[in-house]
Amino acid sequence: MSETKGQTAIAHTNIALIKYWGKADPVLNLPTTSSLSLTLDEYYTKTRVEEADEDSLLINELPQDGKRVHQFLNILREEMGNFPPLRVISENKVPLSAGLASSASSFAALTAAVAKHNGWDLSLEELSRLARRGSGSATRSFFPDFAIWDKGHDDKSSYAHHLDVPDLPIALVVCRISGMVKKVSSSDGMQRAQTSPNYQAWVDESAKQLEDMKVALANADLDRVGQIAEKNALAMHDLNLTATKQRFTYFNQNTMKVLNEVKALRAKGYIAYATMDAGPNVKIITNREQAEAIKEYLAERFRKIQFDIATPGPGISYE
């Protein structure tokens, strides 16, 4: 019996150093701000697509509700032309729904696998644009190391591209405070945050921070990179607390304790700056030389938290 024909793609997750937090167009997933990210080597999604009788989804060998994937595949059919139903078989090396951008690697891998399966000759930027309709953050997971997602002004102009940065010895200490599914989804969180009276000011400041971040990266100034990223992230989370529609927070007690320890590490002379996506998990920006010491320092103080070290990762690949 011949093996079922299919195609496999691997995409790594990314952490935004300048955040995406709000939609100018929810249908097209157009963001209110441009964003800048670092692709991570240690967290990835491997996705295989095979022709089937109907669209379906398996994640880590378990059947899932494939509604979101089916809707996305139909968007691709409308955009690129019809293709048969697909079985999507995904192996996810990212904790789901915990603020580690599992949807970014998942939709990037899915888009790439479908394109390869159907023989579409597309650039990385074109793949990025298509993936945006599944997950905004997925736009950035096609590229190695650093990427910028230009917000654009319509469907054709909103996609990511690689940012060439001089060798920067950046590393992240990932504090996996919780792997539980978050109570407020990213999409819902963004909608709420956009009701904050401070939202437009955050958008304006984020645009300035993006330009400052480009300069800091070009100068390989890791301290400055961390300072900008931490300020951008904490201001993003402040929006959630000042939302006029159902204010909320992703922080828990351990989040706050880890953030305090980050300040303590800086006082001790370490390069240590916090960034967070939609979830309680803290990512500490440091250099490769200090990452292990920071991990050990925190592990002694938080016995029940898992700590990983993440480093810059590759762009999209195929098997």
Automatic annotation (TrEMBL):
List the InterPro entries hit by this protein, alphabetically: GHMP_kinase_C_sf, Mev_decarb, Mev_diP_decarb, MVD-like_N, Mvd1_C, Ribosomal_Su5_D2-typ_SF, Ribsml_uS5_D2-typ_fold_subgr
Which GO cellular component term is one of those annotated?
cytosol
Matching entries from Pfam families are given as: MDD_C (PF18376), MVD-like_N (PF22700)
Q: Name one GO molecular function term.
A: diphosphomevalonate decarboxylase activity
Q: Which residues form a coiled coil?
A: none
Q: Which GO terms describe its biological process?
A: isopentenyl diphosphate biosynthetic process, mevalonate pathway
Q: Which residues form the Mvd1 C-terminal domain?
A: 173-304
- The residues covered by the Diphosphomevalonate decarboxylase-like N-terminal domain are 11-160
> What is this enzyme's EC?
4.1.1.33
Q: Which family does it belong to?
A: Belongs to the diphosphomevalonate decarboxylase family.
Q: What is this protein called?
A: diphosphomevalonate decarboxylase
